[in-house]
Amino acid sequence: MTGVPAFSPTVLRAGGFVGFLTVAQLRANACGPVPTQPGIYVVLRASVAPPRFLAHSPAGWFKGVDPTETVSVLQAKWVPDTPLMYVGKATAGSQRRRHLRKRLAELMDFGAGRPIGHRGGRHLWQIEGSDGFRVAWRPAEDPTTAENDVLRAFLAAHGALPFANIAGPRG
Fold first, then answer.
1. Distance of alpha carbon 10 from alpha carbon 130, whole angstroms
2. Which of 17, 52, 55, 59 has the highest CB neighbour number within 10 Å of its CB?
3. Judging by DSSP bridges, how do beta strands 18-22 and 39-44 pair with one another?
4. Predicted TM-score of the model (pTM)
């Protein structure tokens, strides 16, 4: 696909990602279209231009911890020339109650200010216009390996982790 940027919706669709719903859409329907399977998900921004960062995060204070990061740190973490800002995973969990819908609902709730334990991706919510971010997902039997593959490919292409990822590939 010559001329199509890596990690664009077109490339991600070709890699099996589906959904591409906005944060606002997912919040409005309680993540209803998202499957109840383990897998990985990505958060994308429509523009690759540098964003406007908010001085204070609207995300939830989980265990009393303010999710706000300084604007200078966010600016330093910004990865130019890519719409992909975050890669996450949803494992089945020990009791098989964890899945993509549950994990994405937690991410949406955390970004909406609820005190939810989803600190991964917390920098997303400090970008102006986060309700318009697109979220796509792909079921995977081994979400850790699938997430690691995307993170390694991103590192190879950009020399850094996606903007809102705090940790790199695991295991």
1. 21
2. 59
3. unpaired
4. 0.93
Residues in the chain: 171
Token pair 């979400």 in the structure block, residue:
143
As beta bridge partners, residue 62 has 65
Q: Which of 50, 51, 63 is nearest to 126 (CA)?
A: 51
95-144 pLDDT, tens digit per residue, is 666 799 999 999 999 999 998 877 778 999 999 999 999 999 999 999 99
Q: Dig out the tokens for 72 from the structure.
A: 């200078």
* Backbone CA torsion sign across 118, 124, 35, 141: negative
- pLDDT category at 40 given cuts 50, 70, 90 is very high
Joined tokens for residue 79: 């990865």
- How many other CB atoms are there within 10 angstroms of residue 49's CB atom? 9
Distance between CA 152 and CA 76 in Å, rounded? 20
Chain position carrying tokens 């995300």:
59
User: Comparing C-alpha atoms, which of 1, 32, 161, 164 is closest to residue 104?
Assistant: 32
